[in-house]
Amino acid sequence: MANDPMWNFDVPTQMRQFAEQSVEQAKKAVDGFLSAAHKTATTLETQASTAQTGAKDMSQKVMTFAEANINNSFEFAQKLVRAKDIQEVMALQQEFLKQQMQAIQSQAKDIGAAATKAAMDSAKPKI
Questions:
Q1: Can you give the pTM of this predicted structure?
Q2: Which candidate among 45, 65, 77, 116 keeps its CA 20 to 30 Å from the CA of 22?
């Protein structure tokens, strides 16, 4: 497969530059969205009561995880547009999927623990 001319191709410099610019523009757009989401989350958090402390913790965790996942995806995209051949693309894809699965497992565990804590805290009698 590696010697098959179909799989041996060079990405033209202009096309690679265009892809890199596209990834950067998309990242800037998502960063703007995340900034707006943070402002909205902050506004909602300031309006929350004491009983919603768990929800605040959860929203912070979810936003942190979303940012990390988005940043990892953009890093992956940038690596992909710089890949020299299909073998490198496949190796990058495998590495990315492994990292994302580990991240998802860790994030799910953290969210589960935070949800449990929030449920326990909201069930405590208020003095």
A1: 0.62
A2: 65
